Amino acid sequence: MTSTVHDVLAERRHQLILRALRSGGPAAVTDLSEQLGVSPATVRRDLLKLEEEGLLTRVHGGAVVDEGDQPFAEVAEVRVPEKDAIAAKAASLIEDGQSVLLDIGTTAYRLARQLHGRRITVITSNLVVYEELVDDEGIELVLLGGMVRREYRSLVGFLTEDNLRQLHADWLFLGTSGVRPGGQVMDTTVVEVPVKRAMIKAGERVVLLADRAKFPGTGMAKVCGPEDLDVVVTNAPVDAATRSSLEEAGVQVVVA
């Protein structure tokens, strides 16, 4: 019986470790130990087991997983309080009567939850944002067309980009997989990048929503440089190199 319980607990830890790595990029043993409430030695054993199974790669002090397109529901469960703090700060920037463009991703969804009761227009390709706001009659809701990516609950493709070329929004709230020290905004999913770039062109002011795990985070495809951003809302101090790059480009860094 004890062995069975132990196996269940280990399997649960393994799932949580993989979720944390997939949503936030490389993670240190000490960070994982704190998140899981277990000893660093236990985390190291878990990482060794997961590496043997081909599910991650151990690096100095921690581990990484191969970048990939993770289901929305899986990513949505990670770092919710941090995302909510960022969302609340971002929502405070919006004034009634303004138009708001919301990117795909889980932080944009948390922001949508903060917008109930507001007299604003929301434009999005995020199906979860649409579902969250569709019954709020005070919000003018514009759903962009496109090809449905079911697992990540988003719309992409040339139809989405064409729609964006016909629109203009007071604010764009942009998500990211990672922010490099030079201030470059990255994404793990190539198919989303053209839509994000079209959103940037459609937004009067561009706000990047990035929790602590996004510095540097992950991503092989560049979405934009720091010169395309106006504000970064995060929940932790940004490392010196990245902050310098952002400030040199005139980007305001707001800590939630």
TrEMBL record:
Please indicate which superkingdom the organism of origin belongs to.
Bacteria
Keywords from the named record: DNA-binding, Transcription, Transcription regulation
Give start and end of each HTH deoR-type domain: 10-65
The record's section on SMART domains has: DeoRC, HTH_DEOR, HTH_GNTR
Q: Which Pfam families match?
A: DeoRC (PF00455), HTH_DeoR (PF08220)
Q: Which GO terms describe its molecular function?
A: DNA binding; DNA-binding transcription factor activity
**PANTHER family to which the protein is assigned, alphabetical:** AGA OPERON TRANSCRIPTIONAL REPRESSOR-RELATED, HTH-TYPE TRANSCRIPTIONAL REGULATOR SRLR-RELATED
Name of this chain's protein: DeoR family transcriptional regulator
- Native organism is Streptomyces albiflavescens
